[in-house]
Amino acid sequence: MVNKNSYLYIGLITMVATLGGLLFGYDTAVISGAEGSLQAYFTEGLGLSSLIHGLTVSSALIGCIIGGFISGYFATNFGRKYSLIIAAVLFLVSALGSAFPEFLFFTRGEPSYALLITFNIYRIIGGIGVGLASAISPMYIGEMAPPKIRGTLVSLNQFAIIFGMLVVYFVNWGIAKGQTLEWVNDIGWRYMFLSEAIPAILFLVLLFTVPETPRYLVSKNEDEKAMNILSRIYEKTMAKATMFEIKASFKESNKKAKLFTFGKKIVVVGILLSVFQQFVGINVALYYAPRIFESMGAARDASMFQTIIMGLVNVVFTLIAIFTVDKFGRKPLLISGSVGMTIGMFGVAAMAFSNKIGIATLIFIIIYTASFMMSWGPVVWVLISEIFPNRIRAQAVAIAVAAQWAANYFISSTYPAMMEVSGGLTYSFYGIMSLLSALFIWKFVPETKGRSLEELEKILVNSQKKDEDVA
Length: 471
Description:
Shape: globular
Radius of gyration: 22 Å
Distance between the termini: 41 Å
Strand content: under 5%
Structural class: mainly alpha
Number of strands: 0
Number of helices: 21
Largest sheet: none
Helix content: over 70%
């Protein structure tokens, strides 16, 4: 059983870890308010194509891929806690550099190819922070959380991501409200990026107050430290039993576990979970939200306000997932979410084909994003944090998260060019992916509700043995 007094302890630790998720959301969504200004300052100022603009808007995703890919190395060699500290530093550097890319080397107000490259480098640095945090924050929470509330606590990380997006939507709107377009294109977009420094500093300071995870400590033979932490979470008997399970899962820790030690299937499932989460097109709606609403006839500040409305919807439906993921399970939420996304995205596609862009489009976008936020948004992170066995978790999560950001980059960077061909076909593609995601979950993804990480590992080993016997 969990110590009655430990819920506050677990809650506070989770809140600190989810600041990584908040910065993840803040960093990825801050571009939604600034992308029009970046187009005016860089793309139009230098006479570049829409493809270059799409690559600039999505440049942070290159860093996300790198950060996701190296997260396994960092989590294994530096620990979950200190990897998050590194991520916090990268967030801070990116916030300052993206706001003032001219610092030291360039003249402000004079765009150039070199300045565009410098800006993208700062965005990539922030992206590396996002990649690290996106992999390690849910991993940290998953390794600290008791089984019965693990889904809820890991889902809080997704809530933090969405809340971070909502906060930056308000910040962007507040900066742009009442200002001329010329001021926003000259000064306003800089304040948008600079505002990220505040949560980055808070995250960095608070990380020094939380412990390392017991499972990482056991992997480094620091059993006493691990037991001290487990004793703060569980009653004495349960703490000892949990410690025994963790140590048993590392009984071959002297042998370096390879990525496919537990078979290829579970790794492939983790990768496809990540890819489908992006191929359904969610980040197109998040990154380009103001522009989508402008195409519906809204003025610039009104389009940002409509983006805030969408952000509020995202928060509400993420809360639904948080309160139901440990009650109904992972699979039912994912499948129902896929159905809702399919309806919403095909609805948007139908409006685009008929050239009837109006309130109906907004409704379908809300149906789509609400369905994602109550399912694929939080639940995929829950599954990725728990389906991989202890000995390969860091490297398997790294591969899955890197695949997720690679898919994100592909979808986001190709959106402007795809829209120039056909908006209806673009949204239809995302609708098809939403439908396929439901079939994938139904056929291949196991239910993990209410089981300890070590129990899931035993089930996985037995499943692998059955597959080998059949083969």
